[in-house]
Amino acid sequence: MLHTYAASGLVASPASGVFSLTWLLIALPLAGAGVLLLGGRRTDGFGHLLGNATSWAAFLVGLALFAGLLGRGAGSRAVGQHLFSWVPVGGLQVSAGLLLDPLSMCFVLLITFVGSLIHLYSVGYMAHDPDRRRFFAYLNLFVAAMLLLVLSDSYLTLYVGWEGVGLASYLLIGFWNRNPEYAAAAKKAFVVNRVGDFGLSVAIMIMFATFGRVDFVGVFAGTSHASSAVLTAIGLMLLLGATGKSAQFPLQSWLGDAMAGPTPVSALIHAATMVTAGVYLVVRSSPIFDAAPTARLLVVAVGAVTLLFGAVIGLAKDDLKKALAASTMSQIGYMMLGAGLGPVGYSFAIFHLLTHGFFKAGLFLGAGSVMHGMNDQTNLRGFGGLSKVMKITWLTFGAGFLAIIGFPGASGFWSKDKIIEAAFVGSGWQPWVFGLAAMLGAGLTAYYMTRLFAMTFHGQARWSDDVHPHESPLVMTIPMMVLALGSLFLGAVLGPTGAITGWLEPVVGAASEGGTVLAPTVISLATLALVVIGAGLAWLAYGMRPVPTAVPAATWATVAARRDLYQDAFNEAAFMRPGQYLTRSLVYVDNRGVDGVVNGLAALVGGTSGRVRRWQTGFVRSYALSMLTGAAVVVAALLLVRL
Amino acid sequence: MSPLTSSVLTATIQAPKIEYSQVAPMLIVLGAAVLGVLVEAFAARRLRYGLQLGIALVGLLAALVSVALLAGAHHIVAMGAVAVDGPTLFMQGSILVFAVLGVLTMAERSLDPGGTAFAAQAASVPGSTAERDAVGAGIMQTEVFPLTMFAVSGMLLFPASTDLLTMFVALEVLSLPLYLLAGMARRRRLLSQEAALKYFLLGAFSSTFFLYGVALLYGYSGSISLTGIADAVSGATGGDALLLIGTALVSVGLLFKLGAAPFHSWTPDVYQGAPTPLTGFMAAATKVAAFGALLRVLYVALGGVRWDWRPMMWAVAILTMVVGAVVAITQTDVKRMLAYSSIAHAGFLLTGVIATSRAGLSSVMFYLLAYGFSTIGAFAVVTLVRNSGGEATHLSQWAGLGRRSPLVAGIFTLFLLAFAGIPLTSGFTSKFAVFSAAMAGGAAPLVVIGVLVSAVAAFFYVRVIVLMFFSEPVGDGTSVVLPSALTTIAITVGAAMTVVLGVLPGWFLHLADQAAVFVR
Amino acid sequence: MRRVNVYAPILVLGLLSTGFAVVSVVAGSLTGPKRYNRARLDAYECGIEPTPQPVGGGRFPVKYYLTAMLFIIFDIEIIFLYPWAVAFDSLGLFGLVEMVLFIVTVFVAYAYVWRRGGLDWD
């Protein structure tokens, strides 16, 4: 099993010592989910406690493993744990194994730490829900599946985790399924994700056909011999998978609807972790993308389009959670952009992913806290002035706000700035287009986040009389405070010290500095200027002036943004309608069409017009005719093939 | 004496040789069937049910043991009529296991207040006094068991036949009892009888195609044995219109049995009308037998002309997958939906057949095994959901099932997830195996279509899951009836194997791989 | 001796049967009296009036078919006995055992039909 799988020649050593516990990371939350789901109502009483316990225990295991990895030299920080031979036959060798390396370690810590904080928060948030136990079971299931996704050592096991997080996400979006709209949202998320999953499974099939293996070691070893067409095909299919899971253009439409789920779910799954799985997939597959420039260029393009797309939608949304969802889409666009840039961007994409995990989870938990105090209302126009009554929420949300707009010194500043800078690396038209798009995105981000922040916490109070906003209990605010600290300082700890690039270098290669078409200082200053302009304009429009509670009439551009830039209308016209037509016509042919021919013949031959009216299904004669026709076609086809 | 008669008479007639031990599985099942007929003739009515069930189960298990004892055999027996080789034994084993589970569900008597799912007296006119009397007397048509055994014996012979006439006999032996059984439902009898009649007429129609194809292949090669045809094909120089038309017609006959489009039209009607336990058994075991025969014909006899039949099979596979998955979306009856799902699965299986390789053979065999367990289990679950009129098969009646009976709905969800090919269920492993075999066999576009269709198919499976768990129950008296140990065993085995074949398929994949060599 | 094609007997049989059919129909039409009446147009040996069909899903008496089918099944079994009898010597004990098994099987079916009332007319 001693094979390299990374550009730098990193070799996974067999698990021993503390690393033999790696499987516990997945097993603990999985066991929690199993007990809670199978135990039924008997476990209602301690369901939330068990859910928390397993999640925190997984975090402790993660910390121990992290310490273990730190204790090793940079070149040997990879551990493989063989679990069992899943499909061990002839030409089909797939074993289920885990791979712990710096890249997956980042995710393990993010998932278990942020996940555990959100478990804690949910104890308060879901306190009054009769199905709280089931909620924690699903959360645990999600954590287990997500850990499997990032820890697996082959694409096939990764796919299991990939489907697992999809299932958990689906169950959690539809958690309040008594509302048919929410059930529809869950279904939409599922269908769109299937398109992405289709891409991933085709990619795996191509890998298997080309390399005969689907584990990272085998696939990456084979990339040097494979033709560039095949690699491009794999890359494009992987990208399709990534766009589905990470809500990237053109499969972004489900994320807004996914906000139907409970807010802790939005924070954990649809902001901090699951939606970033696409970025993980691209970064993990770096050897493939490095050998397929076309696919990589498309990754950058998808990232750039999505980051602007999401930001534009975010400008006009009046729904607190949907605005944050649009922002998530846009921020993941940044990561995708970074990941598509190749070695100059991989580690910054992961860096932004980590900081984003903290500040976006913090923002969502803040949003949840606001909703908690405001009778589950999400309309921004019904808020205002909350900074006085919800001090902790205001401060923690403010920390996340500073991080996301890239306020100098806050976490987002360090990570986003690096991606923007990396986007300017290169020659020709690409650095200009992508770099300027990324820069523009920063300005837009500052605008919509300031708008959102001001409309929620500042200005005069616009809430109705029956609402009594209040601060949330400690069990909710403590996780928010922890995440706020992360939003402010995590970037400074990891970024300027070079910790993150050094840590990831064995996996993704060195992130070389320089080579930008503009001086880095110029880029930073210009970005900062755009951020100041964006934030200033928004503050003028929403912080200084009163906000109307009714939705004002707007230009076509605003309307378009409010409607998610017509993505649903487009999907409906482009995919749903043709699909429905196909279904209908196939059913028609299957049931009626043949009958029509039979009856038409009968009418012609027998002259009995009465029979034509009996357009009824299920006649044996029509079945027989369809068989006869089929047989004739089969015979003709065989003869024609030979000719 | 004329020259003609003397030439016939003087020809020395060799006594044929039958290796009884090698064909023991079929003989045991046939013997049990004949014994069952005797029981019907002489045993007292109240004893019959117990006797028949005992004979059927003992016979099937004994046959299963004899299959296991034959493991590793690789030869042609019975004067070149029957092959005892890996594929034969693997498929016979699968069929026998499915038959055991099928007989268990068919014997279930605690779901319907009247008795089993089969009519008290199949010959009585629906709605007549004779029917009421029969129902009132609480009798049951125990001929069901010997009929099933006859069908099983045909299924055992079908994939083992090495000449086309034996194959035709097997086809009829397996079909005729099924036609009859399909018309014997206790509830909705007219629907059931209509289904049986349709199945019979169309089955007879397809048999003639098969037979005509056999005649043409004989005309081409001068032989009805598969190896003889293969020899003729490999030494062929021309004049092969006979060969191609024969190939096409034999394929049509076999494709009908496995429910491939455009020969699928009987499937939904029959699956819906037939007694549900029988539907489950038929869907699982007939598919195995029919794919076994198709594989043997295409691989052994017609392997030499695969470049001719592969494009046709491509088209059939694509059409089958698309029709099955797309039309299933609009179904409102759970049995019809499962029928279209079985059509789609036939399409997925055909992609493995097209691979024309050892991997193709072994993956199809594995798929059949995995699919059979899930199917029998799924149809067994359908028998549990009932209202006063019998089984509640309209999907709207399944709404909210997950709230009332989480366990049953959960198990059905497991089966649906397996049909959808979600990882860690047998459906994923088997689809993966079939698709990778097809991919390696140079059928990449087919695999892409297959994966795309599975994505579509996942939609309607999930729709049912959503319906069961996320919808408000309708108050029309639909409830889940607790079954006796018989159905419980069948469902448990089905569910357990669905998980085992998904999580730890190694042993079975290995077995299928070892078995995947046809004797020639 | 010139070698006879193996298909020749089939050809001869075909010619014979065609000839018989043609001859009997032609002879019948030439020699029979040409009086048409109701009885003459009745169904012959088939039990049921083909027209008009019973309205509203009426019932056909099935007994005649049942008996006819049973007759055909048992009648056809005898076909296997002739060639066996001709080749009895060369088939030996094997042939005897197989034939006994065959007849036993047929008798099982007979027993079933008899016990379940298949042979009762009413």
Key features of this structure:
heterotrimer; A: 643 residues; mainly alpha; three-stranded mixed sheet; 70% helix; globular; B: 520 residues; three-stranded antiparallel sheet; two-stranded antiparallel sheet; 21 helices; disordered N terminus
Write up this protein:
The complex is a heterotrimer of chains A (643), B (520) and C (122). Chain A has 643 residues and is mainly α. Chain A has helices spanning 22-39, 47-70, 102-125, 132-151, 155-173, 180-211, 216-222, 228-245, 254-258, 263-272, 277-284, 286-290, 293-316, 320-340, 343-373, 391-405, 411-423, 430-457, 474-494, 499-508, 520-544, 556-562, 567-606, 609-612, 620-642; strands at residues 13-14, 79-89, 92-100. Chain A contains 25 helices and 3 strands. A 3-stranded mixed sheet of chain A has the order 1-2-3. In chain A, a hairpin with a 2-residue loop joins strand 2 (79-89) and strand 3. In chain A, helix 2 runs antiparallel to helix 3 (102-125), helix 13 (293-316) runs parallel beside helix 18 and helix 14 runs antiparallel to helix 15 (343-373). Chain B has one domain. Chain B has helices at residues 3-10, 24-42, 45-69, 86-106, 129-137, 144-157, 164-182, 189-221, 226-234, 241-258, 266-273, 276-301, 306-328, 334-354, 358-384, 401-404, 406-420, 426-440, 444-470, 485-503, 506-515; strands at residues 75-77, 82-84, 385-387, 390-391, 479-480. In chain B, a hairpin with a 2-residue loop joins strand 3 and strand 4 (390-391). In chain B, helix 6 runs antiparallel to helix 7. By secondary structure, chain C is mainly α. Chain C has a single domain (2-115), classed as Methane Monooxygenase Hydroxylase, Chain G, domain 1, CATH 1.20.58. Chain C is 66% helix and 0% strand. The termini of chain C are far apart. The model of chain C has no long low-confidence stretch (mean pLDDT 79). At the A-B interface, strand 2, helix 5, helix 6, helix 23 and helix 25 of A face helix 8, helix 10, helix 13, helix 15 and helix 18 of B.
